[in-house]
Amino acid sequence: MKHLLLFIALIISVRSYTQQSELFSISINKEQEQQYERERNFEPRHDRAGGGSLIIPFFDDFSRFSLPTNDPEVPASWQMWDDNNVFLNCTFAKSAPTIGVATFDGLAPNGHPYNFLQPDSYGSADTLTSLPIDLSGKTFADSVYLVFQIQQGGWGNTPNTGDSLVLEFYTPFGAGEWRQQWSMDGGDAMDTFTRIFVTVPEADADLFFVDGFRFRFRNYATLSANADHWNLDYVILDQNILPSNFGYDEVAMQYCPNTLLNSQYTAMPWSHFLSAPGSFMADGIDFPQRNLGLTQNISTRWKVSLNGTDIYNSAQLNNISNNANSEFNASFGMDGFVYSDPGNDSSTVFDICAFFNPTDAHLQNDTVCFEQRFSNYYAYDDGTAEAAYGINTAGGNVAMKFKAHIQDSLIGAYIFWMPFQNDISDNTFFLKVWNESGGQPSDVLMENINFSFPHYYDGFNNFKYYALDSAIVVQDNFFIGWVQQNAEYYTIGADMNTGANPTKLYRNFGVGYSWEQETVAGTIMIRPVFKSGFDQWTNINESPKPDSFTLYPNPANDQLQISLNGISENYLVEIFDLTGRTISQERMQINSILNLNIADLPSSSYIIKLTNQNTGQQMHQRFIRQ
Fold first, then answer.
1. pLDDT at residue 19, as a whole number
2. Could you tell me the end-to-end alpha-carbon distance of the chain, in angstroms, rounded to an integer?
3. CB 372 within 8 A of CB 334
4. What is the spatial distance between Cα 549 and Cα 346, in angstroms, rounded to a whole number?
5. Which of helix, strand or coil describes residue 566?
6. What is the chain's alpha carbon radius of gyration, rounded to the nearest angstrom?
7. Are 610 and 572 in contact (CB under 8 A)?
8. Is 78 helix (H, G, I), strand (E, B) or coil?
9. Which of the four pLDDT bands, split at 50, 70 and 90, describes residue 536?
10. Does pTM surpass 0.85?
11. C-alpha–C-alpha distance, residues 302 and 285, integer Å
12. Whole-number Å distance between alpha carbons of 453 and 515
């Protein structure tokens, strides 16, 4: 059983135990955006296209999509599994055997927790089940083994004692039966992978050495959060395996690179980049690689493509010496390469791929690709979240530093809210922009008067766009973030593979507190959005603003009149100061017009929020008490 604070990776307590910031361990690559689309409407399949069970050797290192899908671009020969609960990615693992792992967590295939109603819910979570396999004719003497590599935590959250990962074998005899063959308990943070060998017990040979054999992995975990991570890689089922004399003949790419830009950017507005292209390019790029076997001659190249046409091809980098059983980088200089302008002044996307030349037996892990996207936003994160960050103070502020390299109109922000144990989608916050003074946030340049709500989309890694009430022109350094209404953790995705937080992230706990620089690792996933060359820019995910009401007079002295255009309903009427602190709240009937006494309020600006007690509709406006 998991409890509220057992999954915290790092806690920074500030001033008192009630006010703190936390980095919660959590999950999400370019493939991930495609993965959800593939999984949404899949139909479970129990045999391969064309019929028949799989035959050994069975192999999957998760370097390509191998879960069930109706996507015609994924060949049936790639599909090895009968369910789609795990998350395929290339960022969760540390010291990965090859590029790509299957991560087990507490999230269902739609990206939401299995149980978001009970914060301490616990039970069976993700399952990964093989398609049927034909083992008929095999005997115990054939030395049939399932071999795989496993890691607890990695860049994510380490499972606790009481959590576990189990392996079960299936026999189709009778009504069918699953039998547990192996398990590992949580509680052991792992920076490397452990190789496991599991064979069919000799006494059960007649049950399992048949056509229709299957195996499955299952984790037992917290069901209300993206936590308790197990990373699975390099799964082999074959005969004639001797655990005492087993080795690999494999060289592979290991991780996904994410940028050719410097200054920590993974993305930036295209018009900003074009202001000084050469100044934004990195000096070089590393492609992490792994040799699981003996020393080999390794040759690597990389290229950049635009709209399917190669615009840069590197020279070949030959052989890293003494590379047996090791991790290493293929390090390239840029050779003067700069992203070129294809004549589009608003956005463009470049494809970067590195590959071995020649390849080896497993072609799928010999190439790694990523997109460099230029649109109208800045990003430090790589689009994946291995953890979540939040503060728990009403009126608390979180601010991330960016630099607009040309003068442009800031119009909003993308934010990735991570579902993590407590559903905060009914809570509210104000989007804010600050200028910089002394390296930290200073004067407020813009603060929305309209409440915003954290929003969880279906799928993984889906950012929500929040518009500023009005655009603001910025240049050079600025901060963007939020002030939150409630004393709950507003958990934003934290990308642990990049490192902007320790130099860019600030927070304070409201009135009377000063700004302090965060020291937590990673990068919170907020991206400022600019007009940036777009004649008209709208976002399909932008929610319509709710209906409004009339306040009169505004500014007001002792009385504030609320008019609802003839509607008579029961409302919760709440007043907040601009830090988000609740000043008053009262349920009352509003019969078209309500006169509200505000004589006791100090002279200041406030937010009034009306919540319809029948429909849940919320409306809000700002007013001034003179």
1. 60
2. 54
3. no
4. 38
5. strand
6. 27
7. yes
8. helix
9. low
10. no
11. 10
12. 24
